[in-house]
Amino acid sequence: MVETRKSQINLINSSLKCLPLFLFLLLSSHAQEKKFYFYKPISYGSDATFNPFSMLVNGGFDELQAYWRPNSFAELPWKGGSSNVWANITSPLPQISKYGWKDFFTHEVFPTSLSAEKAQYFPNYTLHLIGGGMAYRKAAEWFDYYGYPVPYFLAAVTAMGYHYINEIIENGESFFYSNVDPIADLLIFDPLGIILFSFDGVCDFFSTKVELFDWNSQPAFSFLPFAIRNTRQSFVIRYPISKSNRTSIIYHFGAFGELGLSYKTNNEDAISVTGGLTSKQVYTIENPYTGAVRPAIKFGPRVGVYWDRNNSLMMSLVLTDNFKEFFYFDVYPGVVSVGSVSPGFFILVGKKAQITLGVTFSFLPIGLSAYIPR
């Protein structure tokens, strides 16, 4: 009996001695099991230039493509836009009442019509719920990968920050007007996107069952005046349609929508050709009885040719009837090398022969550019 008791004690002591090793192996296995669904720490393409600051800039100033707003920071409508947005989102119920509750839910929330004048819900689902949710999760994975504390909180702040800047540019009039668009975006779809993509199951679906990723632009600062250039936020959904998975349908969307085909030339690289419509100009229509406004869009054609490697955009050529530029040519890091450095660069041509040139580096959060007016 005594010997049995001693054996049990020895077994327990041996187990306790092994406990630190067991805990180490357990923690190591969890670390190895951590999966990044959207962020890829690679040195080439659009993913090489991704960081939360570039996401904030690309997403926040994306609407400069479709609004008559200056690129200069000093001239952007910070005061009027922020006052308009804040006044609407802090008193949403009166603004929705002015607009009409039925119209709000059928135009902004639920997909009930294919009419361009009544389909404000479409960008709410694509850009705010799906695209914005994925951008939030990718930023969270970036913060997590580089060891920042509370990565999901930092990503949520960054995501809501770029959405808020975006709304300021959209609502940048010097006078107040009732507008339900920022209410639907900031109070409904943006938070829902963050919640939705906080679930691993949702992220797994959009990274394996359906390929969802981003092809954001290479933003850059220019000087004299201090301005932001080449800002575009875009997302891609790609779905294979051949048994070999080489040929896929591709939908590329942002302040535009392009549909086309993508063909894998090898196990890593793919060429995509797309065409569609872009937001040529955004304007507002005011209800003469209530004073409430709603956005409306003028469309123009857009075509693009894209080369990506493992879903990271390497090069793109776009012709578009946009509000400011009609020609975009982007080459990302990993294509051209100068010694041990591989910069990215871009060329934009405006409708009045303005030219914007820029260079980016994967080790800098944002690039540098020169704007050459006509």
What can you see in these coordinates?
The chain is of the alpha+beta class. The protein has ten helices and 13 strands. It has a 13-stranded mixed sheet with strand order 1-4-5-6-7-8-9-10-11-12-13-2-3. Strand 9 and strand 10 form a beta hairpin. The longest helix is centred in the N-terminal third of the chain and has 32 residues. The chain is globular and about 60 Å long. 41% of the residues are buried. About 5% of the residues have low confidence.
The mean pLDDT is: 87
**Which shape, going by the Cα principal axes?**
globular
In spatial order, strands of the major sheet run 1-4-5-6-7-8-9-10-11-12-13-2-3
H-E string: HHHHHHHHHHEEEEEEEEEEEEE
Give the fraction of residues assigned to helices: 25-40%
Number of strands: 13
Alpha carbon gyration radius = 24 Å
Q: End-to-end span in angstroms?
A: 99 Å
Residues in β-strands, percent: 25-35%
Q: Mind summarizing the main beta sheet?
A: 13 strands, mixed
Please provide a brief summary of the model.
With 374 residues, this protein is an alpha+beta fold.
Task: List the main descriptive attributes of the protein structure presented here.
alpha+beta
